Amino acid sequence: MKPTCRRICDLLTQYADGTLAAEQRAEVQRHLDACPPCRVVAGKECGARQLLRACAGRLRAEQVPPALRSRCQELSRQSATSQLWSRRAVRLAVAAVLIVFTGSMLSVVTRHSDALLAAQLTADHVKCFTLFGHQEGRSLDATQAQQMLQEQFGIDVHVPPSSASGGLELVDARRCLYAEGRIPHLMYQAKGQDISLFVLEGESRAPAEFTAFGHHTRIWSRGDRTFVLITPAAEAPAAAARYVAEEAR
Amino acid sequence: MFRRPSSAPSSADDFSAEALQFLQPLFATAMRLTRNRADAEDLVQDTYVKAFRHSAQFKRGTNLRAWLYTILHNTWRNRRRDASRDAVDVDSEQVEQLAAGGIGNEQIDTPERILMRSTLDADLQAALDHLPEAFREAVWLRDVEEFTYAEIAEMLNVPIGTVMSRISRGRRMLYEKLSAPAAPVAAGAAGGRR
Predict the structure, then answer these.
(1) B35-65 pLDDT, tens digit each
(2) Which of A37, A55, A211, B162 is exposed most, by the fewest CB atoms within 10 A?
């Protein structure tokens, strides 16, 4: 590493944090514009920082075991020499309870919001295809997939098989990462495009469609079973998607 | 939501109430530090025992939150030292080299792609837990808890320069962990192909 690069790299933490003085910031920026290796390093630092900042609220929201909470409250009572809890402390405790309560309400809302479901499953779709989906020559027999769903989830789903029309191929059947692995994820490909079908058992929703993150999501139910179909928004393999939607039962 | 500008608690029970506001983030921090629920609970409880016992030493007008985090990290360090089990030298040269190596040679994903893939917090947590402790705590305190370099230096009892280099390396390692093709998916969440 060149001396200049070494010096710039020492400034990258503050650069990512936005705590550099304007002059130094401009200097780092100039160097990054001219130096691809340093740009890669800066991209990693800034990327990790952005990601952590974006998720910080949820990372901090670790559920405190109720027993621990009461033990700590008991400790504070013991230490507050002879004084009873002040009104303010009671108010704070009530506020804390409310926050926990609202927190749990929020997750109920999430379960019922179609848009959030669509966003979450779109993320899952991208993730699963990135991690597992693009291996040459992979295909899966629909009966095998049905059997897997039966064994793993105890549900009897008709899995649309690979089909010559539209060039559709069933490539994988997985336990979805969403909802702690409780829902099945069927992965298809058609003409190089990724298609996902998720099955939510025991849920009924009104039909809905969304386009977000470059993907199209279609939600519909049959009886008390909900299906979620995700396709790329651009150059969607329409015929294949229609076939999957019609065949899924 | 609970963060306040270093206001000074006015009495003993105000102090307790204020200190207890930080229970949840302290517990989250303890979870990432210990990577174990039982240890995290012990650590947080010990922290409060000490905080309440030494509340008189807390200087009014200073930052109660930072003070609590300092106690938490001191307690954890002492415990680790006492236990001397799995005495891992976190700053071993090997780790430093591991962290510094391979920069700029590999293909990496854009933040957007990683963000998409990492929507599931479990993966981010798993990647954090995978970092060596020294890097994990520095990155956590900076990027999740937003403490200043000086505050972190005091909590970890290391110079500011060390704090900054640990944050820097920790972030890069985390990014590489998340963008690696074989990124580990949170344990138990993923089933293989059947």
Answers:
(1) 889 999 999 999 999 998 888 888 877 889 9
(2) A211
